[in-house]
């Protein structure tokens, strides 16, 4: 073993005539400009050192590399860019082997592909997540990967964006060797063998994945058919992989780079990067620095609403928590759900039995780390089990909101798919309790947003949907049909429109919550007319088959009496499009919350709408969408609509100030 040196973010070591270059940059060896520059310098030094016969590139810590830090994509790409670094590796005059372990993501995969050989620990996981950010892989990935594994596997990796284990048979041709142990020693041995042999094949010259042109084209055709009519990153990935077969390597790289740069600056990619970063910022709560988070592994569920508690119970037992319930019927219901999961093949019998073993009836004082009260209101004389010393007690929102609670949770349903939690924090709440809840949510793969009480009222999500519902009801009073309003909401970016959402929630519950919301913004009488009319006719929502829509087996259709065409949009809204009217109401509500400090940051609201209400991720949420459209345009719509209902649309002072100063919610106007 030779000397050991540290150059910036590269640890350089000599082993058996090989230069081992270990990337060492917190966090996760992201390929930041300094790391790239340091790696390039270390390669240059190794090329010039006669005693070095080959190079092994590896990563320190828990993984090889997480790829490029997303923040870099929002500015000029610093030199050396990853593509140039990959060319430097591929053209290196001595054999280069990548030793892979842990996570290898994005541009980190590009770095590995540029090496002359790859050794991976069997537990290594590769992912190309760019498509989830509205982008395509760069750094030559779309040209090198198909040369190794063919079009089908390359497209599966790039279009799914999901991690794949190195041991997956599909990746057999991706690696030269797979080892159950630390891959470094194996990589050094392989590099020495290549150096002894004096020859090696660069990835650009590999042709294993190109040997069956007909199969390659079939794979492209099947994917292109599936994406028919769709543009965006998926279509560009298909075009780039096709170029790997049709174009010489150098031209293929140029074609990939052109597509990469177009995607990088697209509105869709900027929006998706915004949401990706916003979800990580949302987890930063002041209490995490003020109090010590404690593990919450024993959960007591008390009350209340059967559907909510069943959802919560399944969420916690699936996460490996021990759960006790105060309602025997709930325990039986959860066991039936688990039995059904086995019958439908979603769970094996062993998994069911393990979950049932963690589920018992009868919560007692001092047992639980977390006691969740889902009774909806305090019940006189009813006993609420106390948590253990240092444990946490919190209220659960079952639909009415969390106004007036000291500490509360709204776990958005269905919990297995929404993956959003709103944590309501009253002034004076114990920091350790908040920190523990936030950590539990993160450990369970949930995105948590913090709602400051009493400013948040019923809650952040309830506040945003109240604005949407009140605007929708006002448009209906003006003569637009529920169907037309819902279609406008879907064009805006919501998966379901406000009237379908109200039906799903239950109209009586919506009415109660909207009464408080309307009072909070000073909305006078008359706003509830369309809602009261439906309730008076017994149309209470989807659960009874009738609301603003009827619900026959074939799917929702406008209710009788609400299916007519209604008035022309121009008669109701003048020059304002219905989707822009709904958008303006949402932006105004968000500005009220920000001004009241009910929410930590503007991006939290976008996370809430995307994660909790299925707002189109490719638009980045309503606030990002307002910046991209122009906050000035939104303000113009507000001023035009204020005459209809000032409490809903009269612009909040924050919006006036932002426009006056040339700002958006996320920086200078036009910079979003």
Automatic annotation (TrEMBL):
It holds the Pfam family 3HCDH. The keyword Isomerase applies. GO terms for biological process: fatty acid beta-oxidation. Residues 464-551 form the 3-hydroxyacyl-CoA dehydrogenase C-terminal domain. InterPro entries: 3HC_DH_C, 6-PGluconate_DH-like_C_sf, 6PGD_dom2, ClpP/crotonase-like_dom_sf, Enoyl-CoA_hyd/isom_CS, Enoyl-CoA_hydra/iso. Keywords: Isomerase, Lipid degradation, Lipid metabolism, Lyase, Multifunctional enzyme, Peroxisome. One of its GO terms (molecular function) is isomerase activity. SUPFAM superfamilies: 6-phosphogluconate dehydrogenase C-terminal domain-like, ClpP/crotonase. It is found in: Peroxisome. Belongs to the enoyl-CoA hydratase/isomerase family. This is Short chain enoyl-CoA hydratase /3-hydroxyacyl-CoA dehydrogenase. It comes from Roseovarius marisflavi.
